[in-house]
Structures are given as C-alpha cells and as structure tokens.
Amino acid sequence: MNSKPKPAFASDEIVLSIDTLFKAFGDNKVLNGFSLHLKKGENLVLMGRSGSGKSVLIKCLVGLIKPDSGTIEISGNNIADLEQKEMDELRTTIGFLFQGSALYDSMTVRENLEFPLRRHTKKLSQNEIEELVFDTLESVGLKHTVDLMPAELSGGMQRRIALARALILKPKIIIYDEPTTGLDPITSKEIIELMNNIQEQYQTSSLIITHDVDCARVVSNRIILLLDGVNYAEGTFEELSSSKDEKIKAFFK
Ligand SMILES: Nc1ncnc2c1ncn2[C@@H]1O[C@H](COP(=O)(O)OP(=O)(O)OP(=O)(O)O)[C@@H](O)[C@H]1O
Ligand SMILES: [Mg+2]
Questions:
Q1: Whose CA is nearest to atom 9 of ligand 1?
Q2: What's the pTM?
Q3: CB-based burial of residue 154 (10 Å sphere; 0-12 exposed, 13-18 middle, 19+ buried)?
Q4: What residues does 45 pair with on adjacent strands?
Q5: Of 118, 138, 170, which marks where a domain is finished?
Q6: Which residue puts its alpha carbon closest to atom 31 of ligand 1?
Q7: Ligand 1 in reach of 229 Cβ (< 6 A)
Q8: Which of 141, 178, 229, 240 is the most buried (most CB within 10 A)?
C-alpha cells in the first residue's frame, strides 16, 4: 500500500458546506461556531476527541438534530429549508458507513445490498438489480460472498459489505464513522486502501471521522481538527503533523 500522505485536493466545487454551527445541550456547548467545507472529490478527515461533538455534527447533517444556529448546505440545498420528503431524497445521495458494520443479520449479502435499491430507486428490473449488486461487490472484492450470511464473514469482510451497501446507490458524498475501529492492522489497511480506491473509481467526496492516525495519513487530502466546538486547525497531514502547537501535536501521537 502506498502509505505516503496525499496532497490537498484541487477543486473549487463545494459539495457540503457547514457554516458557523452552534449547538448546545443546556450548559453543554458542544458546537461553538464550527465550519467545514467539503470539496468535490476530496477525502476530508475530521478528527476530534471523544465527546468533542463529531456525532452531534453528523446528526445535524442528516437532520436528526436541529442546530441552534448556523447553516448546512448539501449539494447547494440549505437543509433548513427542505421539507421532510426533500430531505429524505437528499439523504439518498449520501452513503454512510456506520461504526460497526450494521448489516442485517437475517439477510444474505445479496439481500443486504438489494435493500437500499428496493427502498430508494424506482422500478429496476431484476437484471439491473443483479448487475448492480455484482458490480458493487466486485468493487469491494467480495463477489463470491453474495449468498453468504453476515455471520459467515469476518469482521473486515462485513465492513466491506457495509461499504458496498453504502455505495450501491452511487452516493455523491460518503460519511465514514470510524471505519477502522475494532479491526486488526492488516484488515484496517485493506479498508483504508479500499477507501482510496473508491475515491478514485467513483470520484466521491468523503467525510471521514477517525482517531486512527495511519488512516488519516493515507486517506486524507485534508484534515480538520474539531476542538472546543470549533474547527481549531485545518491542513494536510504533513502540515498538521509537523505543527508546533501542543494541542495539535496531541492528535498525532
Ligand atoms: N441528544 C443529546 N442530548 C444531550 N447531550 C448530548 C446529546 N447528544 C450528544 N450530547 C453531548 O454532546 C457531546 C458530544 O457528543 P458526541 O456524541 O457528538 O461526541 P463524539 O465526538 O461523537 O465522541 P465519540 O468519539 O466518543 O463518538 C457530549 O458531551 C454528549 O454528552
Ligand atoms: Mg461519536
């Protein structure tokens, strides 16, 4: 695996824009004017300590939590202006890889992948569905598992299938929540490599939440540090990891 840091991604098109977001729960001020702009085709890593507000931020993004103030624009749509139905449609353009794999245990790999297709796309023929399932499984290298149950797969394979399920609707944006947590180093590397392949193959824009410094180094075009509710620092892996600021250094130990 090429483990060198990547350069910043050159694009002017912003696909996801979070501006001066504030969110408090009572006295607990979690987000204090946080901003983030994800460029088209970019892998943007978000790092922040446990409890810093990463999940709150994601929940604001998908409309599960309403921020106190600030704006969120996804593909040019201010989500505060959207009706529920429009928000649901917009959400289908975002793929999520949740922590853990969250596959449906009682469904085969094929059924897990067909699920979002049947739910969100208008009538596809059985052949079209079959083709999409196999193409997507191929891009995560697991075509041969199509008729297996999740319990018959290793943890790393389950995560790759979960990634295939997130990819099958050809999302414009992928949000990865701790993609390598709980995996052994070799399997982690496979997932990291796959994330880079997906960026190349599908030209997706990704927001990647991780504590894993190796993952951040290999997948990121740019990193944002969430600290004290704000985007405390932004830059490439090389820029941030060579910082003299003690608070920034702490993330790269
Ligand atoms: N629904 C809620 N009601 C009240 N407080 C909340 C709620 N959701 C989150 N919080 C608080 O917001 C803060 C940030 O939580 P969050 O889950 O976003 O952390 P995180 O950065 O995702 O941490 P981790 O890395 O452990 O997942 C915490 O202090 C948490 O207690
Ligand atoms: Mg969290």
A1: 56
A2: 0.91
A3: exposed
A4: 208, 223
A5: 170
A6: 51
A7: no
A8: 240
What single-letter amino acid sits at 28? Answer: N
Q: Do 253 and 179 reside in the same domain of the chain?
A: yes
- What one-letter code names the amino acid at 163? L
* Mean pLDDT calculated for residue range 56-63: 91
Task: State how far the alpha carbon of 18 is from the alpha carbons of 26, 74, 77, 215, in Å.
Answer: 22, 9, 11, 23
CA distance 190 to 224: 24
User: Residue 5 domain-assigned?
Assistant: no
CA-to-CA distance for 92 and 56, rounded, in angstroms? 20
Quote the tokens at residue 117: 């297709």
Is 127 a pocket residue for ligand 1 (Cβ < 6 Å)? Answer: no
**Does 187 have pLDDT greater than 90?**
no
Residue 56 has pLDDT above 90, yes or no: yes
Does the CB atom of residue 226 touch ligand 1 within 6 A? Answer: no
